[in-house]
Amino acid sequence: MIREYKHEPFTDFSVKENKKAFEEALDLVNSQLGKEYPLVIGGERITTDEKIVSINPANKEEVIGTVSKANKDLAEKAMQVAVSTFETWKKWAPEARANILYRASAILRRRKHEFSAYLVKEGGKPWKEADADTAEAIDFLEFYARQMELMKNGVPVKSREGEINQFNYIPLGVGIVISPFNFPLAIMAGTTVAAIVSGNTVLLKPANNTPVVAAKFAEVMEQAGLPAGVLNFIPGSGAEVGDYLVDHPKTRFVSFTGSREVGCRIYERAAKVHPGQIWLKRVIAEMGGKDTMVIDNNVDTDMAASAIVYSAFGFSGQKCSAGSRAVVHQDVYDEVLEKAVELTKSLRVGNPEDLGNYMGPVIDQAAYNKIMSYIEIGRTEGKIAAGGEGDDSKGYFIQPTIVADVEEKARLMQEEIFGPVVAFCKARDFDHMMEIANNTDYGLTGALVSNNREHIERAKEEFHVGNLYFNRGCTGAIVGYQPFGGFNMSGTDSKAGGPDYLLLHMQAKTTSELL
Ligand SMILES: NC(=O)c1ccc[n+]([C@@H]2O[C@H](COP(=O)([O-])OP(=O)(O)OC[C@H]3O[C@@H](n4cnc5c(N)ncnc54)[C@H](O)[C@@H]3O)[C@@H](O)[C@H]2O)c1
Ligand SMILES: N[C@@H](CCC=O)C(=O)O
Description:
Layout: H1 16-31, E1 35-37, E2 39-41, E3 44-46, E4 51-56, E5 59-68, H2 72-89, H3 94-110, H4 112-123, H5 127-151, E6 163-171, E7 174-178, H6 186-197, E8 201-205, H7 211-223, E9 231-233, H8 238-247, E10 251-257, H9 260-270, E11 282-286, E12 291-295, H10 301-313, E13 323-329, H11 333-345, H12 365-381, E14 383-386, E15 390-391, E16 397-398, E17 401-404, H13 411-414, E18 421-427, H14 430-437, E19 445-449, H15 453-462, E20 467-470, E21 506-514
Parallel strand pairs: 1-5, 7-8, 7-10, 8-9, 10-11, 12-13, 12-19, 13-18, 17-18, 19-20
Antiparallel strand pairs: 2-3, 4-5, 6-21, 14-17, 15-16
5-oxo-L-norvaline (A1AUG) binds next to loops.
């Protein structure tokens, strides 16, 4: 009997005990800063001379940890271990694999604030965003474990008189999991455990900005009873280790989450068949977005302004789901803009360790420079109505920025900025709104704020995004409730946290026996 799945509740930090518990977790993490983390290959801890130094984006001087860095030789060693461990792991009963995820989830739940505190320090996440990231990681463990249990007997097929036909799912082989910095726990853990619970072995290459939280999660999986060699932890350079493993003939699939540029590169390289390769590689690629908040003319403008602001600036706009463009009906454009500007100016930016700060830093110098250059483009493509300034003297802080009166095809309306910048664009009517909403290469999330039932029904048909929301913001999908993933250049149309996600990590086998 599978227990009912429910998502992990978020922590209410207005409760004194919760606030205190989180402060204690921050103290704990602060006392552990600067530790060294090895690679883990087949259970063996390997320390390398070359390191990735993980720093606090809110304070460039502070080292979160130093992580050993894999090269091609170590990637090859990890591949050999993963290939041989697959032969035993694939024979584990699906329930036994699922049990490891339940145990890992229990460990993570017990150490929830500790993990969130690492996300504050290493990822620059404000408390609430960090708490949501950890909750989502717990959800992925709980959800995929149940999905595996549901799928363990395959799907019934017809049998004629005198035969028994069966249709079952079997694992694929070795998967390369490559994760982004922005959900350093949830996405890294979710993509890893989906592959593992489906019976595959994994080489995990986390983002170079956030390897410490990934190292800590790999430890949790080991504590939960995962056999050595099933999860191999190999942080390293995308260009060196990433390319090597994507090209490797023994790689069976790649599960990538990150930018469009890297996703397209992986997709292309994985298509090439190398000597010794006896399959076509599968690629799951979850990529970028240019997500739109669409505001109709008959709405509560306070609610619309608030939905725009929180979708744009949550975690400094560093979400693939971030509402980085607001398309507003001309009748309410000025009012919504004015309210959004007022609200934006009230948001406090600063060290995310301070609960009072709504927004922390962006992840690194490259992100800071890129976002600031888009703000400069914004000055030519529209008017800066709020924000527009940055300060990278201590950490990478950028004010939440609204650029008003931007044309629908302007760069600010088309390109993923991945920072706290939202462009406002005025629309004539509902037809025009739908036209603008669909005018990018992407198709990840979007939301319509409207009280017009006909428009809501039309948007369900016409607004071409993988995650469409009504009368709310466009971020914050919950595992098992709002399966997540986009269309077009947002990826390979997969849905993380959805009922068919594990299938992407398996192949179906038909057996037919004559009686
Ligand atoms: N669609 C989704 O579900 C989703 C979720 C989160 C983030 N994202 C996207 O991720 C991006 C932000 O994350 P990021 O900055 O970490 O992305 P990124 O593409 O820069 O890096 C992602 C990962 O790819 C690795 N990598 C880099 N070059 C590589 C190569 N040649 N081969 C293999 N791996 C390589 C990186 O080291 C990192 O681990 C944004 O575009 C965002 O929209 C999408
Ligand atoms: N699943 C998250 C976004 C993940 C990408 O960054 C959301 O729905 O906001």
